[in-house]
Amino acid sequence: MLANSMAMFLNFAVLLISRDLLVDASFVGPSCSTFQSRHSSAVLATPREEAEALIERARKMREEVAGLEGRPIEQVEAEAKAKRENRQQREEAAAASRQAKKEAVSERKTVNGSFLSVPETFDDQVYQAKQAVERACKEGVTRQVIRFALVPPGDVLNEDRQWPGGAQQMYREAAGPLTRELLRQVRVSPTNASGDTAATSWTNKPNVTSQDIWDFDGSAWVAATYEGTYNTIQAMVLPNTDNKYTLDIQGMSESLGMGQLLILVNPFWRDVESWGFNLLAPKAKALAQEIIFDSGFEETYVLLQKSIQGEDCIALKAFPYDWQLFAYAETDYWPYDQYIVHLGSTAEEPKSTDFVPLLQQREEFRLSKNMRQMQRMLKKDE
Fold it and tell me: Where does the signal peptide begin and end (predicted)?
């Protein structure tokens, strides 16, 4: 019984003393200093001597264990080495697992776009749209649709904004400035009819011009041209379902060729069903299907503001990533500022019903906005 207890104690001591750290003769640490101070008050040992003393002590303890258990010293040392190697392998495997999980999360964010944030200012939105347009062009998408959240220069996104002047005011104060600034910043290198890439010099800013289509509609063409090159970017702003816009898009697309960029900015349709049936233009829907929806126009940047169960929500699409869903929550501190909560991602454009379960899962939206406001008022009065 005593021999077994002694053996267990010595085994434990061997494991502690013969750790990898102590096997390294260059190790210097407090345990070495403590050991030396207890066993030699006359002479201070060097770090190498301290390490060698510990190694020697561990060897003797293994010999004692081998003697008590009646086993060869080689077997005891082999077992100790195997335990150290096994522990090291477990630690390395755990570290590799943690790193793999970290990389998987990072890759998932990169693939689905969950790293994207809501652009709350005019400039942020233009820059985010510019990046999406350029990424799409690199993938060969030269027929694009952009839907800005109409934020005038100097304003922020989540403001109660009205447009009593209709489309004319929307173009004058927001859609026009957003489009012109986007075309000033976009850098794409289109190809000509022969497939040659435009030798555009990005050191010179493009010449950006605007031309009204129908003033009462608030519609216009915005163009960016680079002097001395065939590089031209055209954007039609605020087109609607009138046949004139469909035919103008067809004419401009043919004039540019598929190698140059054509953008439709904030069109008033959502899909081909927006055309409906028009007695004056019975073929308008079929024409739109052919010229717009069958010609490769793709939504590359969209920023939608939605009200879902009284919550201010955002749906963001930036090519080539998934739709990102957000909602505004309020702080609990006066004057009650707002902050943005990322709810999740969807591959397809989200419906209102897609937001509801995501909102319900978040503690910030457990209560309705009215109830949250009432609670804050009560706290303020206390």
Answer: 1-25
Among residues 177, 187, 203, 160, which one has the least CA distance to residue 123? 177
Provide the domain count of the chain. 2
Average pLDDT of the chain to the nearest whole number: 83
Residue that terminates a domain, selected from 110, 130, 152: 110
Residue 275 to residues 268, 279, 297, 358, 381: CA-CA distances in angstroms?
10, 12, 17, 33, 54
Residue 366 maps to a domain: no
236 contact partners, CB below 8 Å, separation of at least 6? 213, 219, 220, 221, 245, 248, 249, 252, 262, 263, 264, 265, 267
Q: In whole angstroms, how large is the CA radius of gyration of the chain?
A: 35
d(CA 130, CA 235): 13
Residues 176, 72 share a domain:
no
Distance CA 338, CA 156 (A): 12
Residue that is written with structure tokens 């085994």 in the block: 11
Would you state the torsion angle of the CA atoms of residues 291, 296, 301, 303, taken in this order, to the nearest 10 degrees? 50
Strands (E), the chain: 143-147, 207-212, 220-225, 232-237, 262-265, 298-308, 311-318, 323-330, 338-346
* b/e per residue 68-95 (b: at least 16 CB within 10 A): eeeeeeeebbeebeeeeeeeeeeeeeee
CB atoms within 10 A of CB 234: 20
Final residue of a domain: which of 56, 81, 110?
Answer: 110
Asked if residue 133 and residue 66 are part of one domain, the reply reads no
Clarify whether residues 85 and 43 are in a common domain: yes
Helix (H, G, I), strand (E, B) or coil at 126: helix
Is residue 227 a contact partner of residue 204, using CB atoms and an 8 Å limit? yes
Relative to beta strand 143-147, strand 262-265 is parallel
pLDDT < 70: residue spans in the chain: 1-44, 100-110, 190-203, 228-230, 334-336, 380-382
28 with 172, same domain: the answer is: no
Condensed to tens digits (0 to 9), the pLDDT of residues 223-253 reads 999 876 668 999 999 999 999 999 999 999 9
Co-location of 97 and 134 in the same domain: no
Are 356 and 309 in contact by the 8 Å Cβ rule? The answer is: yes
Query: 235 is in which domain, residue-wise?
Result: 122-318
Segment 137-173, tens digit of pLDDT: 999 999 999 999 999 999 999 888 899 999 999 999 9
Strand 323-330 relative to strand 143-147, pairing: unpaired
